[in-house]
From TrEMBL:
<feature type="domain" description="Endoribonuclease L-PSP/chorismate mutase-like">
    <location>
        <begin position="6"/>
        <end position="147"/>
    </location>
</feature>
<dbReference type="InterPro" id="IPR035959">
    <property type="entry name" value="RutC-like_sf"/>
</dbReference>
<protein>
    <submittedName>
        <fullName>RidA family protein</fullName>
    </submittedName>
</protein>
<dbReference type="InterPro" id="IPR013813">
    <property type="entry name" value="Endoribo_LPSP/chorism_mut-like"/>
</dbReference>
<dbReference type="Pfam" id="PF14588">
    <property type="entry name" value="YjgF_endoribonc"/>
</dbReference>
Amino acid sequence: MSTTIEQKLASLGITLPTPTPPLANYVPVVRTGNLLFVSGQVSIDGAGTITTGKLGGGLSIEAGQAAARLCAINILAQVKASVGDLEKVVRVVKLVAFVNSVPDFTDQPKVVNGCSDLLVEILGDKGRHARSAVGIAALPFNAAVEVEAVVEVA
């Protein structure tokens, strides 16, 4: 008997939050064919607390990885809200991650592994994806990390 995605989430102590509604003029997910384009998800937890700050400017790589992990959880919450069942995920195709960082910080890939590692842990090979990890001067609400995703669904 195989473990479902929901069982994997539960075993990790993860409860998907109710997705955050858009705070500007956009929609959280656009579906075209079998692809979901998930708008950027910031490092916000289920209680509404945003992990803020700059990597290399007081925020550690480990704290950044935890923030990126929150982004993965929020991506999954948006996918579930869009299609109703995470078992419909065929593959995470692409992530584009933005890391709020000081100019000389160059470990964005290590930070974004917090998101990538969780997706692979939960989804297995379906969670392996192409990715960009970009340092940026500022993010909305001073969020530490923001990640957008392209996800193929059945």
